[in-house]
Write a structure and sequence with these properties.
Blueprint: H1 6-9, E1 16-18, E2 23-26, E3 29-32, E4 36-43, E5 66-73, H2 77-88, H3 98-106, E6 116-117, E7 123-125, H4 129-134, E8 138-140, H5 152-173, E9 175-178, E10 189-192, E11 202-207, H6 208-212, H7 217-229, H8 248-253, E12 258-264, E13 267-276, E14 286-287, H9 297-302, H10 305-310, E15 317-318, E16 324-331, H11 342-360, E17 370-376, H12 377-386, E18 390-397, E19 408-416
Parallel strand pairs: 4-6, 7-8, 16-17
Antiparallel strand pairs: 1-4, 2-3, 4-5, 9-10, 11-12, 12-13, 13-16, 14-15, 17-19, 18-19
Length: about 425
């Protein structure tokens, strides 16, 4: 929401409608209808709509399909009973789009309680930069994975404004005031209470088959994509999501992979996965650790010819063993869970599950086994060094690799399994 909504909420009589009949027959069941009701919204847009959408079928599927993302409703017990009765009738609506499907049956333009259209200026779904400039009141979009990446920076700016606001609110709640002894005009001394530890959380491990059965796959995908966009305190800008679908992670893990997920207050706050990697003969050769330290940051970022020429020096090539790779490590941006050791706990959970599986399979050589990961040196490399990983190989990735705005060095890292 980027504009005040008082204008659309201050005149509810504008949206007040009257049912055209007293009841509705659905699959042989007679359902009573409310005499009056309020149900207003906008038609469903297409994902590839033009800026300032206004046409059918280029921008909208039609004028009659209601989008459930932006609606004006009036609390009504009679309307609730209507929906309740409709839900009780088998096959009364298509369940493919859950809430939106039943809304389009109950509030069908061809039915006795049709929805009313509001002005297009109040809401835009999947906005283009031109739509943002036009001044829609509500931008209906996922700020961490927008349909049109040209709008991402603007959407992120609102996210960080929100984080800043609530961080300030939280800091106020963490203060206690103590009045010093003395005259009434003595100023108060403000004592800052240190930030509290992370709320309790639990970690559960899922096999690939178990993961695919879970209802929280969209939430897990969002957490991973949000974390993927976080480039720490660097000048890197990341575009494009890590996961394009809810099932992509499970597909990447294969039958032998697994995922550890941290839950707090029934929500996902972090995740990490482990998969078995096979040698890939098509990927570029790895260079010896430290090979790219001879180049300046500007040379790395821009993909200079000196950096690219060094890739042909085969004397600097090294072999990196394939094995057990830690992937998709992600923590929610909620400040309550950042810098609390949750990422390391998830990595440890993956390591423990790996060791358990090796023990069950009676694998030998546990002391010689290790866990690997790949990390962008300039973004998370230092973090993983602190967690006991060592660099065993380097690759250069030119600008736009994985959607990063600058060139970077990719580290292949490993850490021995604890015995």
């Amino acid at each position: 929401m980027v504009q005040c909504l008082d204008g659309i909420l201050s005149a509810p009589v504008t949206w007040l409608a009257t049912s055209t009949q007293t009841s509705l027959s659905t699959n042989g069941v007679e359902i009573p209808l409310p005499e009056t009701y309020i149900a207003a919204g906008l038609p469903q847009l297409r994902t590839n709509h033009s800026s300032h959408p206004s046409r059918v079928p280029e921008d909208f599927w039609d004028w009659d399909t209601l989008n459930a993302g932006f609606m004006i409703l009036q609390p009504s017990l009679k309307m609730f009973r209507y929906f309740e009765a409709l839900l009780a009738v088998k096959d009364s609506f298509d369940t493919s789009v859950a809430d939106q499907s039943v809304l389009n049956v109950a509030l069908s333009r061809e039915g006795p309680t049709p929805w009313t259209a509001v002005d297009f200026s109040w809401n835009i779904q999947w906005p283009w930069p031109e739509d943002i400039k036009k001044g829609y009141a509500v931008l209906h979009e996922k700020w961490w994975a927008p349909m049109h990446w040209e709008s991402r920076e603007y959407l992120l700016s609102w996210y960080w404004r929100m984080i800043g606001y609530y961080s300030a609110i939280l800091s106020v709640f963490k203060m206690s005031t103590t009045t010093m002894e003395g005259p009434l005009h003595t100023p108060e001394v403000i004592t800052i209470i240190p930030s509290s530890p992370a709320p309790s959380y639990r970690i559960k491990t899922f096999t690939q088959s178990d993961l695919l059965k879970q209802p929280f796959l969209p939430e897990l995908r969002d957490i991973i994509n949000i974390s993927y966009y976080d480039t720490a305190d660097t000048s890197f800008v990341k575009s494009g999501p890590r996961l394009m679908s809810d099932t992509q992670l499970a597909e990447e893990l294969g039958e032998t992979g697994f995922t550890a997920i941290a839950f707090a207050e029934n929500a996902i706050i972090g995740t990490a996965s482990l998969k078995v990697c096979s040698p890939n003969s098509e990927e570029p050769p790895w260079k010896l650790p430290g090979h790219f330290e001879q180049f300046s940051a500007d040379e790395i970022f821009s993909g200079s010819s000196t950096v690219l020429d060094s890739l042909h020096d085969e004397s600097q090539n090294t072999h990196c063993e394939a094995g057990f790779e830690l992937v998709a490590v992600a923590i929610t941006p909620d400040p309550r869970y950042r810098r609390k050791g949750i990422g390391e706990s998830l990595a440890k959970a993956c390591e423990d599950e790996l060791k358990r599986r090796m023990s069950v399979a009676e694998c030998t050589g546990l002391s010689r086994s290790c866990m690997t990961l790949r990390s962008v040196r300039e973004v998370r490399g230092a973090y993983w060094l602190k967690k006991g990983f060592r660099v065993v190989g380097e690759q250069y990735c030119p600008p736009l690799t994985w959607g990063y705005s600058k060139g970077f060095v990719l580290w292949n890292m490993e850490r021995d399994l604890s015995v």
